[in-house]
Write a structure and sequence with these properties.
Layout lengths: L1 H16 L1 E5 L3 E4 L8 E5 L4 E8 L2 E6 L2 E6 L3 E3 L8 H11 L15 H5 L5 H8 L5 H10 L33
Length: about 180
Amino acid sequence: MRSLLAIVLLSLASIAWAESGTLVRTSDLKQKPFSDAASAGKLGSGARVDIVARQGAWMQVKSGSQSGWVKLLNVRTGNGRSTGGGIGQLGSVLNTGSSGTTVTTGAKGLSSEQIRNARPNYAELKKLDGYDATRQSAAGSAAANGLKPRSVPYVVSRAATSDSAPANDPQNRRRSP
């Protein structure tokens, strides 16, 4: 009986300590914390969410029956309400030591150990090479979409006209692909 009571109390405590937030813009829920992950749904701007976990620049959130990962910059943590500033905010600072405003502005970087242990992923590099466009494929795609070639005059940069970099310097000429 005591262990059941302890479990119930711990469960209630964890719910009470769960972090909440509000979406600042309409966001796609992702099944995994990656931009190219499959969609798990969509939440509108102003939706209240419970933050389940964080990973890099992503937050795992739950809102009603929907759950998934959203970019952390799309979430305003806390109660999501404005304190209105002025006397009300000053009272909040005096009572709690906090203005109630939380701002999240970045993502965790790499540690020196992660950089030392980094290894190239040749499969991803090969995949990236597959996106390369040849002049012929680009011209075919442009023609298929109704685009026509136009001659655009070359613009000489100000640096190219300075004394240290003459306009006829090969470094300042456009290279042909």
